[in-house]
Amino acid sequence: ENAISIKNLVKTYSNGKQALRGVSLDIPRGSMFALLGPNGAGKSTLINTLAGLVNKTSGQVTVWGFDIDRDPRNAKASIGIVPQELVFDAFFTPLEVLELQAGLYGVPKAQRRSMELLRAVKLDDKANAYSRTLSGGMKRRLLVAKALVHNPPILVLDEPTAGVDLELRQQLWSYVRELHAAGATVVLTTHYLEEAQQLCDRIAIIHNGQVVANTDKETLLEQA
Ligand code: ADP
Ligand code: ADP
């Protein structure tokens, strides 16, 4: 069964821009999946549709077997999204950011769960600092922790290493690999072939709002 199944997904923004032109894509459970494509290809629009941040124009999307139109709550509970932008309330502390998210998802023992995640992303020493004092890399890690608060089976990262230095990129990759090894389905968007190649077992290429290739990594490399 698929972690995510997308059929004929179309998104036309209200200015007329067709960001997705009939995307169909199945992402198997347990895979480490890359959505590879240049800037403007439609990757964020696709991710934001899964996250409930963009209203699709037409098409069908199921997440962990739940249709996002008919069963949006279960669909949302099955996915954790790490957005591209490092945006959250700078006046909250990391611990508060996570507790708030835990509250939204009805996670029991919110404080304990939040501290556990802060330790996992090595931010426990910043638990009570204001978020505006965090470096870019720390913010990225906090957003990963936030995406994982409700323990979703699917983790989606939108351009996780954009603007991230080499050291943090290595840290992030090794943490994501651990999560995958522990059973998570991981989906990431990137415009670096190298990142897709090194991390993922399947790669779909998105270009101009359409999926133009979708194969396992070895096949893609043979064709290249
Ligand atoms: P929808 O079609 O889903 O209602 P809108 O077209 O209203 O979405 O756009 C949502 C927001 O995105 C608006 O505030 C708009 O200004 C902004 N926006 C417009 N063009 C772009 C773009 N190329 N990239 C990112 N954001 C954009
Ligand atoms: P990617 O993540 O692959 O860079 P996006 O999904 O951000 O691609 O954008 C796909 C296309 O849709 C681009 O041409 C972008 O300018 C446009 N776009 C993104 N958001 C909006 C918006 N809110 N309103 C209008 N156009 C948008």
TrEMBL record:
Keyword Cell inner membrane assigned: no
All residue ranges annotated as the ABC transporter domain in the record: 4-224
Any one GO MF annotation of this record: ATP hydrolysis activity
Keywords from the UniProt entry: ATP-binding, Nucleotide-binding, Transport
Coiled coil recorded as keyword: no
Protein's recorded name: ABC transporter ATP-binding protein
